[in-house]
Amino acid sequence: MKIMKSTYIKNLPVVAFLSAMIIILSGCTEERPADAVRANKYAKVTPDNGDAVLPPNIAPLNFRIDEEGEGYYVRSYSKKGDEIVCTKRNVEYNVGKWHQLLETAKGDTLYTEIYVKKGGRWSVYQTVKNAVATEDIDRYVSYRMIEPSYVEYEEMSINQRDLTDFSEKVIYSNMPFGKNDEGQCVNCHSYRNYNSDGRMQLHVRERMGGTLIVEGDRVTKINLATDSTAAGRYPAWHPTKNLIAYSVNATGQVFHTKDTQKVEVIDFGSDLTLYDIDNNTVYGVSMEKDEYESFPAWSPDGKTLYYTSAHYVQKTDNIDAELDSDYQNLKYNICRKSFDDKSMTFSAADTVFNARALGKSAALPRVSPDGKYMLFGLADYGNFHIWHKNSDLYVMRLDNGEVYPLTEANSDEADSYHNWSSNGRWIIFSSRRDDGNYTRLYISYFDKNGKAHKAFVMPQKHPDYYANLFKSYNVPEFMVKPVSASKQKLYKSTRGNALPASYGGMK
User: Fold this and answer.
1) Residues 10-31: tens digit of each pLDDT
2) Domains annotated on the chain, with CATH
């Protein structure tokens, strides 16, 4: 494969001539089939990312042609005349040449022609078109990789991917800490301002449990459980202060015997807390008995804390047994509290979106970096929509309260855990649209008019990568910088004693 403007090689220096001859022998400079019959359909490919809007700095969107044939010719090009040609069924672009091509298509269109030779005759399928946006996507994303067994977490890891190429590294893995039937669960990685200042946190559960607070190269292990509060679970860094809001959740899993959704994760009780990192102090924010508050998220200016809340009055003495059968009555609204960062106090709660009134349940409110939109998930019940086939992504315009689904990005399977890019133009989320079982990461362009576009799966070097991957992705988080703390430093802190936090009362 190569960017081609001419196939002439005369008058080249010897080294260049030999290089050109090698390329010719590899079969990547074949002439475009001149007598191809035009097919009135698109070629079947995996993955199918046609019509998706692409970031101008994304890694190559490699794919496999699912049409049988004895010959293949693929040409991707821009209007400016630059092109890449490949003559293999598995189309794997050179990273550097791909980025050169995207640069020429930036703000315009990338075209891809697919030719297949069958029975000695060539057919050319309808041209695939991808708009190429002018806005970049954040270079890095981190996520949790987990086995699909739903109960085994020793092989779970938090990984970091460079979206401009295919490089990936493990930030933290549970594997070094497995011991016989013991093990640990690492989860809830979160960053302040897309890791722009190197501030990160993650939880270590079970063996050697604690919360790791990362500030650049410094890692501190904290025990967030106090005599008045349980340890924080789902975090949200304040955008300017050294504060983290948490929901404190008592969760559990129920395994269905007949339901096709397999598992239900249930919140048996939850509250909101605030952790002051500089003073190592935990404060209560909302700890009402009949309110189940979860998944906090700050507004970009740090003046508002959004979260989900379900009103549920316990009927028996055993909440676990009760909700095992009554979990479908947990329906969460989206609420908010104003925050005064000088007095460190919160206002009374205000309901932003009443999902329960619609017979629905909301999850994971996330405000866009410009403060104009709130992105959230909506399903029939519960707060862990990764298991719900009817879960879709919605947005609310915060200036007028208009709510609408991201129809072009949603699918018939579970579309759930989601986040904004730092410029607000890209959304990343987990989806089970491929097979209904494994979550993969999908990316959608969100334009200045508040419309999402067709989502494309996170690119991989080999087109068959996902078909051969028996793990799921979840909790994707965009980052503008990679994690600087090494695995060794994180592991060393995990093995150390946790510094106990103190309780400072209600806020």
Assistant:
1) 333 433 333 333 333 233 447 8
2) 2-131 (2.60.40.10), 140-500 (2.120.10.30)
